[in-house]
Design a protein that fits this description.
By secondary structure, the chain is mainly β. It is 9% helix and 37% strand. It is built from four helices and 44 strands. The protein has a five-stranded antiparallel beta sheet with strand order 1-2-3-4-5, with no helix packed on it. Strand 27 (448-453) and strand 28 form a beta hairpin. Helix 1 crosses helix 4 (81-93).
Length: 652
């Protein structure tokens, strides 16, 4: 009798579970399957949703179901609470195509009689991506009845392609004589993303690209996805990362490193995308966030932080690549009572900003990191931070092993214009007045071009590189700006040049040894700066004012080539557009300069004369800078355009 009762209970429970599952599917079939497919993997009228579900909690899913996305064609669903719970229950049970299946195992014949055996990660009629048992990715191309293995001959292994920060490549296959044959080779779209600011990284034929809290590994020759890592975005975040910004990865050994929005740094397995470790850099609830590509140096991975417009105290921090354990940390603003704190008179030293949100550069011979720092906070009001506000708006030269400060140079003391120093610090070895020198070049946001001896931090040259510059007359012999009167923000508003966006900004620059010229995208624009009293609080901005374009303004983007010994402009290329693009420079040894032109085209110009030679109209507001690599004997130019990665190569 006891057995019979137990059997009846189990049977009843099974029937009830089946009925519940049927009810859950009924809700999905009635409201979602018609667009998104019976398994949520996409249909004729809607995209796949299974990969996106993990980025929503149940409350957020319920809100999405009830309100829909009218601008994207998703209608609201009129469901009661029980029906909503039933639908969410079914959504949580969905799996992406292939999630429950082991990737196919295959033995592949190669030319010359060799063979490879492993897991097929992806394939088409022309290519295959195979993971062998030694955890190596093999990129294969159809070759008769079998395959041939391909890879890159010249990588782009870090954010700027090289530690020096100079976006200059020795590749010459694409030249002035054939650049008109450059055409798109492949496109990869990152779904559900903000306009990308990432620079692709290529190592051993695999390209790594990111958006907020997502990393993709791609076949660099075809754009085919190899693996994809994603985690939920952080809710209630403030700062740039809340808008979806992420600029890329660092790669070292078998690890891929990236910063995620909550100011954590993570390590992924390079072959599989599996999470290896996750370390908090700072508490996001104190207005920290992260957007930049880390820098791998020796056994360390090094990162800065975002939060400069929210009063977060800046730092540069190094972690052990194998474990994620913190090795050293340099704070960009001293605490009250520490050396340098005397340059902060007032309460704002408690929320000083000076964030470090762009990737630094590195000199392996000197063992020195050069990291740019951000503006002090609040951005536009200096009333409670009287003094120079060290080490904001500076380059800090740090011992790469210990993080100890070697020297610093402050471009804009007591900065009240939001002119950070996050423009790339480019390291070059070049003749300076007939003598070989180790130089650091930067076209600063404040409108002056600087040449610094990177061994000791001595200023060698500072010259204006834009015409609209009113805040200072010059940089004096002591390396300090000679200020013009009445050029600070006021409560009524004050016209000042350059604009808040700066004469330049974080987008990439390049120096070409053959021309001895430095190339930078510049902005000719002024604006009205207004300061406003403000108190810091968690979860809010700390800007201390506002900015608007001057009513008589006609802003313009201009590509300029600067002679580094004189600071004079060798040539310039004015552009047509709204002056709101953020695309930078790539230069090659073949005498070409590639850049995001203001009208939305990717353009190539003659590095010696500035003459335009080629363009591809992408119709995007550029937010990223181009890069180049050699794959399977062919040179590629790749750039993030909107939510896509576009790779170009020469037509045959």
């Amino acid at each position: 009798m006891r057995f019979l009762l137990l059997f009846m209970c189990v049977t009843s429970a099974g029937r009830l579970a089946a009925q519940t599952a049927d009810a859950d599917r009924t809700q999905f079939d009635g409201h979602c399957a018609g667009c998104h497919g019976k398994a949520g993997n996409g249909g004729e009228l809607g995209p796949a949703i299974v990969m996106r579900l993990s980025t929503y909690n149940d409350g957020e899913l319920a809100a999405l179901i009830h309100t829909g996305l009218p601008n994207s064609g998703m209608p609201a669903a009129n469901l009661n609470d029980q029906e909503t719970r039933s639908l969410i229950s079914f959504l949580r049970s969905l799996k992406a195509s292939g999630d429950n299946a082991v990737p196919a195992r295959m033995k592949v014949a190669l030319a010359g009689g060799r063979a490879l055996e492993g897991l097929v990660l992806n394939q088409s009629s022309e290519d295959m991506q195979l993971l062998t048992d030694d955890q190596r990715i093999h990129l294969l191309r159809k070759d008769g009845a079998g395959y041939r293995e391909v890879t890159s001959q010249s990588d782009w292994p870090t954010y700027h392609g090289q530690y020096s920060g100079n976006r200059y490549s020795a590749l010459q296959q694409i030249s002035k004589s054939n650049v008109e044959r450059l055409a798109p080779k492949w496109i990869f779209s990152l779904v559900n993303t903000a306009p990308l600011e990432v620079t692709p990284v290529v190592v051993n034929g695999v390209m790594y690209v990111t958006s907020a809290n997502e990393c993709y590994a791609l076949d660099a020759g075809s754009g085919r996805q190899i693996w994809h890592y994603q985690r939920q975005r952080t809710r209630n975040l403030v700062g740039n990362a809340a808008g979806g910004i992420n600029r890329g990865v660092a790669v070292a050994g078998e690890r891929v490193f990236m910063a995620i929005d909550s100011d954590h740094i993570i390590a992924l397995n390079r072959a599989t995308g599996k999470l290896l470790w996750d370390t908090e850099m700072a508490d996001w609830r104190l207005n920290y966030n992260a957007t930049s590509a880390p820098l791998a140096v020796g056994s360390l991975v090094i990162s800065g932080t975002s939060g400069g417009d929210e009063g977060a105290r800046g730092f540069v921090v190094a972690f052990d690549q194998a474990t994620g354990k913190e090795v050293w940390r340099f704070w960009t603003v001293p605490k009250p009572g520490e050396p340098g704190s005397e340059t902060w008179k007032g309460d704002d030293i408690n929320h000083p900003s000076a964030a470090t949100w762009m990737t630094g550069t590195y000199d392996s011979q000197l063992g020195t990191l050069y990291w740019p720092t951000g503006n002090p906070g609040p951005d536009l009001s200096g009333d409670q931070r009287v003094g120079d506000n060290l080490y904001s708006s500076s380059i800090v030269a740090l011992d790469a092993t210990t993080g100890k400060l070697k020297w610093y140079y402050q471009f804009t003391p007591h900065n009240v214009w939001d002119w950070d120093a996050q423009e790339p610090p480019v390291l070059v070895d070049a003749n300076w007045n007939g003598q070989a020198r180790h130089l650091l070049l930067q076209a600063n946001r404040n409108g002056f071009f600087y040449v610094i001896d990177r061994v000791d931090g001595k200023l060698l040259l500072a010259k204006p590189f834009v015409k609209k510059l009113t805040w200072a007359r010059e940089i004096d012999a002591n390396g300090r700006p000679a200020m013009n009167p009445n050029q600070e923000p006021t409560t009524a508003g004050n016209k000042i040049c350059p604009s808040l966006e700066g004469a330049s900004n974080w987008f990439s620059t390049a120096f070409v040894p053959a021309t001895h010229l430095y190339y930078v995208q510049t902005l000719e624009k002024c604006g009205i700066y207004t300061k406003t009293p403000m108190q810091w609080k968690a979860g809010a901005g700390y800007f201390g004012g506002s900015f608007e374009a001057a009513p008589d303004e006609s802003p313009r983007k201009v590509l300029r080539a600067i002679n580094i010994e004189t600071g004079s402009i060798a040539w310039e290329l004015p552009q047509t557009g709204l002056a709101n693009s953020w695309g930078g420079i790539l230069a090659t040894a073949s005498g070409l300069v590639f850049f995001g032109e203001d009208s939305g085209a990717l353009m190539a110009a003659d590095a010696s004369t500035g003459k335009p030679l080629w363009q591809f109209q992408a119709n995007q507001t550029w937010k990223a800078s181009p890069m180049t690599y050699m794959f399977d004997g062919k040179q590629f130019i790749a750039v993030a355009s909107g939510s896509n990665i576009i790779a170009f190569a020469l037509l045959r």
